Amino acid sequence: MRVLLVEDEKEMVAALCNVLTRQNMIVDSVSTIAAAEFMLKDNVHDVLVLDRQLPDGDGLSLVPRLRANGQNIPVLVLTARGDLNDRVAGLQSGADDYLGKPFAFEELLARVRALLRRPSSVVPEVAKMGQLMFDFAHREAWVAGERVEMPRREVLVLEALMRRMGRMVQRATLMEAVFGMNDEIDSNALDTHISRVRRKLSDAGAGVTINGIRGLGYLLRETA
Fold this sequence. Notes:
Blueprint: E1 2-6, H1 10-21, E2 26-30, H2 33-40, E3 47-51, E4 53-54, E5 57-58, H3 62-68, E6 75-79, H4 84-92, E7 97-100, H5 105-117, E8 126-129, E9 132-135, E10 140-143, E11 146-148, H6 152-163, E12 168-170, H7 171-178, H8 189-204, E13 208-213, E14 217-222
Parallel strand pairs: 1-2, 1-3, 3-6, 6-7
Antiparallel strand pairs: 4-5, 8-9, 9-10, 10-11, 12-14, 13-14
Helix pairs in contact: 6-7, 6-8
């Protein structure tokens, strides 16, 4: 799992990075809202841990912009402001959880794990992006009223991407979704299925594309 930590207190950054990396999490840390927005453009992070008091403003101001852009990354807000009104403001802004300073690292870890277990959004029976509609109940893809024919493994690839559309899906997650433990898998099998799905969506005029993020995974996003 990959965590983006937005915090400007060097001692806090060092302590949190140490705690999170000991739990086998990859931590990227930045100290400003602007840097966080730049990092989040690639959608490679699974959770955002966000301080409020940052050099370029209130970190909480970042959350509504993320939600307006369709980024559903789980957000844990850290703050020295611990009263009820501040907690309510944080949650109403679109944050998923709120932790007041000082806090126990064990509690932060528990909250991060809870966010990582939680779906980024409630997936309905049918999801739409661009001209593409995916029916989860029947595992079918449709574009402009026409069914896009795909064999089982390609459907599983697309289903996994649609369940986290707009966010990166790690390669390991896709492998688990597409292949069984006893399957004999060629080293490039996943990439082959991704390529075929990408081509079929393009040919159908789905208005979406699958972007590879080198060494990490794949992202389904709407084309301009």
